Amino acid sequence: TTKIHSVIERLGISPINPSWSTGKNDDINVSSKKITSVSPVDMQDIASVGVISDDDFEKVIRTAKAAYTIWRDIPAPQRGQVLRDFGDTLRKHKKDLGTLVSYEMGKSLQEGYGEVQEMIDICDFAVGLSRQLYGLTIHSERPNHRMYEQWHPLGIVGIISAFNFPVAVWSWNAALALVCGNVCLWKPSEKTPISAVVCQKLLSSVLQNHELPDGISNLIHGGAEIGSKMTNDSRIALISATGSTKMGKAVATAVAARLGKTILELGGNNAMIITADADLDTALPAAVFGAVGTAGQRCTSTRRLIIHEDVYEEFKKKLVGAYKQINIGNPLDENNHMGPLIDKDAIQSYLNTIEAIKTEGGSFLVEGKVFKPTELGSDTYVQPCIAEVDPSFDIIKTETFAPILYIMKYKTLDEAIQIQNNVPQGLSSSIMTLNLREAEVFLSHKGSDCGIANVNIGTSGAEIGGAFGGEKETGGGRESGTESWKAYMRRQTNTINYSKEIPLAQGIKFDL
Ligand code: NAD
Questions:
Q1: Which Pfam families match (predicted)?
Q2: Which of 164, 186, 404, 429 to mutate to test the pocket of ligand 1 (most atoms within 8 A of CB)?
Q3: Which of 115, 158, 284, 511 could form a disulfide with 168 if both were Cys (CB 3.0 to 4.6 A apart)?
């Protein structure tokens, strides 16, 4: 507690934080409706935020629109400088912010630091990108004409984020959106608003050092109702939403109704195929970290192991042995591998899923249970469990955001791939094999149908250099690396005639 209190003090968190924030603590109304962030680690209140009022929402949009006219005029490489400074600020505060993320969300301290590292990495990426927002030049079919395409910013980018990556997901979006010349409006998860308050303060201090106006980065608070207000507002050109598939369907419908743009990063149901040619010693830590890391609350958590019958029994034994060594407890204690689930609702869905597995006829190699470490006073800690299931079970087709691992047997690779693809989600996947043919089939068009397909590493822990996202009910969006930036810009095709004629395309004649 002393440690976390000094972190909170150093980060300058107030007991009550404003409902919207430019990062300074002035000129802000604190609405009567409040959200209090409670740490799942020990059930202590961290601080509160106000839910944005309708009037304040209008003020934020006005401020953001005004800021956009200034920000879009700044050359992209100069915008990159701002992101460079933000990355440096994050380097300075990595330990404190990482600790707060761990305390507010419940992930291990190492994972909290890792999340801030991801923010630093995306800032570096954005700096490079600021000189690489390339368009193509195209040969015109008309003589003495030049064609090219260029990319312009969209305006206000709305970011709706999930609780499990309270800061990294925002930074993937914000770093790219900003470098592309947009301004951002962020509504973090109502379960982790305080980490967001800190991010906003840090970025605002950088913007102020560059003598930039308020409104380039905006933070507002509230739950689904505020998210829905954003999605229905046509002044927000793009909504980038990360969360459950249920939320994604609501967002997609609302934004489509106004023909706006979306980036959707939704639920996963990720599988690892362990073939008879796998190196089981590497498969084991990859599977265990994938299943229990962040207490199974990553969109890329490994939820299903599809194991070849020849190595099934051997791997099962190794897995059960490894699960016995997992330390569960205070995530701020670096000896623990796994912290709590986010809240009581998460515990309930963990318990409901365990019941559903039993009802369908599954059996447990490691039984699940809820427990309450006496020294912490929180009852949101659970035992990660392993269930043996049949691929035909319904329950394994839904994502339960908890450390429940399903294991099942297969005979042929075609069958394994069919099992792996036979779920509505399509985020991450992996195959563990030393057999080149198996690996290549898995990566081919008839292999994994996911946005991420790995060989000999697990399903979680993506790097920011690659585009991140998934297919089917995962929503189809891509964030971070390669060409993801294009989703934050609008494309314009330009044709310039430097002749004295006015030839028409397709050889059409129109003589006057
Ligand atoms: P959630 O869907 O409950 O909430 C996510 C965000 O959406 C929150 O900010 C919430 O307030 C908002 N929201 C909820 N309903 C809304 C609506 N109708 N309109 C607008 N906004 C709405 O998700 P969660 O429990 O915070 O996060 C867990 C989920 O997120 C999991 O399904 C996980 O797989 C997914 N996730 C996906 C990715 C990815 O990149 N694919 C990354 C992280 C988490």
A1: Aldedh (PF00171)
A2: 164
A3: 115
